Amino acid sequence: MFEDLLEEVKKQLKENDSNPDYETIIDVTANAIIEDIHSNEKEKVSKVVSENDEFIKRNREKWSIAFQKLHALRETALQAGMNFQKQFCKYDQYQTDELIGVLMRQHANACRISSEIIHLLEGGYPDGAIARWRTLYEIVIVCLLIKKYGRPAAVDYIKYGIVKNAEGINEYQKTANAMGLETFSQEEIDFANKQKQEITNGDSGWHWARKYAGASKIEKLREHVELDKWSHNYKLASRNIHADYYEMSNLYGMSDAKNNMLLVGQSNSGLTEPAHFMAISLAQITSIFITTYMEDESHELDYLDSLLFLKVINNYVKEVGEAFIDVQNTIR
């Protein structure tokens, strides 16, 4: 690709009465290439951005009703969560309740991740979307466990976050100097490690879920809450996160490809599964959150709005699946 330019640089250097070595030739040639790229950078990048925007426009049009349903589901789930928050904030005892607090934050995480998934789907990256769904699935498992075992499990889950924070501080400290970052003070490190010691009692394998489910690995936890039927989908999603070897033809984005090729960008295929998985998981997380304490006969909360929201959300889950399948069948 750069053969002619290398020869030209070598010729020019020799004309200047020098006997250039290999490294000098490479450096001068590289500088010339960089200068040329910079001179055309704005035009080239503008073209890339324009093509990306045009793809997204076409993709949104092609899957318009399906994306409409998906957006509506996400907005309804968000509204349901905000409405329930208004309900429990009326009561002092729920404002600092660990169970509601943990589930509320998990629901907020799920709403944000769902937006990321929609953005990836509209952008033509279904395999990126299914990788983000992996996190939603894990949130469902965590929420089901915490909901099942109540406030003590929520408290232990919060404690586990403190433990992981201490581990993060120690790991950061190991690499801070090498990365040119400011280090923590010894007082800060000691405080974090003291918190970890108090919580775990020195048990390096301490995990919040072990005393409730008898395990800590996601494979066992999903069995405990009867979500192990999703194990194959979760494994496929995990492959897009890790650096495993797999054929390009196995990508969701290649599901309608007629020829074998290397997919390096966008695709308008393979959107149905990531979208429907997202819809199902978001609905599950929303349901868990907005029905917190509903089984407790001593609760003071009004769940009428929550029940109505769940009817609407469950209907949207069905409509999302149907809409994406309809478009998919039309394309094929």
In short:
The chain is mainly alpha-helical and 332 residues long.
The span between the termini is: 39 Å
Structural class: mainly alpha
Largest sheet: none
The overall number of domains is 1
Shape: globular
What proportion of the residues is helical, as a percent range? over 70%
Radius of gyration: 27 Å
Count the E strands: 0
Contiguous low-pLDDT stretches (5 residues minimum) are none
Secondary-structure element pattern, one letter each:
HHHHHHHHHHHHH
Mean pLDDT: 93
Strand content: under 5%
Q: How many helices in DSSP terms?
A: 13
Describe this structure in words.
There is one protein chain. With 332 residues, the protein is mostly helical. The chain has one domain. 72% of the residues lie in helices and 0% in strands. The chain contains 13 helices and no strands. The longest helix has 41 residues. It is globular, with a radius of gyration of 27 Å.
Key phrases:
single chain; 332 residues; 0% strand
Blueprint (SSEs and pairs):
Elements: H1 3-15, H2 22-62, H3 64-88, H4 92-95, H5 98-122, H6 126-149, H7 151-176, H8 186-200, H9 210-213, H10 218-224, H11 231-239, H12 272-290, H13 304-331
Helix pairs in contact: 1-2, 3-5, 3-12, 3-13, 5-6, 5-7, 5-12, 6-7, 6-10, 6-11, 6-12, 7-8, 12-13
